[in-house]
Amino acid sequence: MYLFVLFAAVAVAAADSCEDRPMCMMHCEYGFQKGADGCDICKCNEEPVDCSKRPMCRMLCEFGFKKGSDGCMICECNEAPPVCPDVMCMMHCEFGFQKGLDGCDVCKCNEKPAEVEKRDSCEDRPMCMMHCEYGFQKGADGCDICKCNEEPVDCSKRPMCRMLCEFGFKRGSDGCMICECNEAPPVCPDVMCMMHCEYGFQKGLDGCDVCKCNEKPVCPEVMCMMHCEFGFQKGADGCDVCKCNEKPAEVTKRESCEDRPMCMMHCEYGFQKGADGCDICKCNEEPVDCSKRPMCRMLCEFGFKKGTDGCMICECNEAPPVCPDVSCFMFCEYGFQKGLDGCNVCKCNEAPEKICQTCRMYCPNGFVMGDDGCPLCKCRPEAKRAVSCEDRPMCMMHCEYGFQKGADGCDICKCNEAPIAKRAKVCKTCRMFCPSGFVMGDDGCPLCKCKPEIKRAAKVCKTCRMYCPYGFVMGDDGCPLCMCKPQPVKRAEKICKVCRMRCPNGFVMGDDGCPTCVCKATPEECAMRPMCMMHCENGFLQGADGCDICKCKE
């Protein structure tokens, strides 16, 4: 009993010694450094390295990439692992064997890891003979001390304020509302700056816009592990986020027209358009030449009216309406729409559709395209398979039925459609990981949006006032029943060593069916592996670490 009190007193004294230190009058974004006694000292931790913001290496390394001094991958390949002889040490090492200079196991045991030693030291502490409903506090060494955590604040049990606050209530130091009203937000004047700011306006001290433009945001060099044909969406800060833009309506319309069969006829003035905006196999009539019409012998201050053929007729236009000097509080890149009276209304015109000239000729290999995306009415030469297709950059996407070919015979980053026999449903592959899975569309395919994580309420189990050397019998609710487990029966068939570590994705299993005390890779680490340049109809095999390897399942 005296020994227990002594240990408890030492644990409490260690915790109190850190709390009695003077507080550092400085802010450290990433926390304070620790001294030799485990207490905070007035030095800031350095900013942690975020390897995900580094550019991705454009190369394939069979055995992975080397790591730099900061722990991030560098664009150098690891050497091939050594081929170790099949020699088994006639000894058991709880924490694995040491490695020799050639990288192979030698018959020497690794020392106990520091985190295991720390955990064991906490388990060796005497158990506090008290019950804490909300758990025990932690000491400077990370172990429980015999002090109870305070009851968490439940704001819903506070009395309701008998007053009305138009702009809500203020909050106290515990995060709950107090019976004081928030101040009214600033009322900004209805003044429009006669300028356009691509990244928005700056704010003044009163929270209102001032006529100064925000600077262009500095975006991190982050590369999304996915391919977006129409570019990435922008976040609130103006930087790319790993979500693809939807296909523009004009592209969808153009593709639907391109899938139509070509009219085997020549129309000097082009083809007529159907109700859907696509060409139909009817020729346009010869355009009217208004310059050959006789000139009107009259003066019209506001110009002449036009007839149904688009040519002027000898009638004067009416005087244009006198529009009020009203300025819309918005910017429209393509101008404002007009009302019935001919004056501007505060609605933006849509982007004009690009109209390309119609080439009056047929080219078996297509037309040469200009910088504006329109054809130059010059035929492409006959496509010859280039020898340098292997020098082209690799498409960062997977196509189950292969890639389409460009005019030069090389692969382009567009997937072939599914064969007719398998065209029942072809879903795109999402190049991202979601711990709770993807949101599914009405067609049964993933939308490449993550499901929200389900936060489960922490279960509070009662504390058993007894010690069991082999643990407690657990109930269906996951809580102990305060009954001791019997001594386990040792089986002679197979005895696996106990790994004194926790792996969230499980252990790599050995050929004998026992864990090797090596953690399986996380889905994020698997996603960073180089992509296999092959297609497997039944999927890829998995290696010992749980990641795909470039071998097909049978």
Report on the biggest sheet. 2 strands, antiparallel
Shape: extended
Average per-residue pLDDT, rounded, comes to 76
Unreliable spans: 1-15
With helices defined by DSSP (H or I, 4 residues minimum), what is the helix count? 4
- Oligomeric state of this protein: single chain
Strand order of the largest sheet: 1-2
Residue share in helices?
under 10%
Radius of gyration: 36 Å
Beta fraction: 15-25%
Structural class: mainly beta
Could you give the distance between the termini? 65 Å
Features:
mainly beta, two-stranded antiparallel ribbon, extended
Quick gist of this model?
The chain is 8% helix and 23% strand. The chain is mainly beta.
What does this structure look like?
With 554 residues, this protein is mostly beta strands. It has a domain at 2-48 and 126-148. Helix content is 8%, strand content 23%. Residues 1-15 have low confidence and may be disordered.
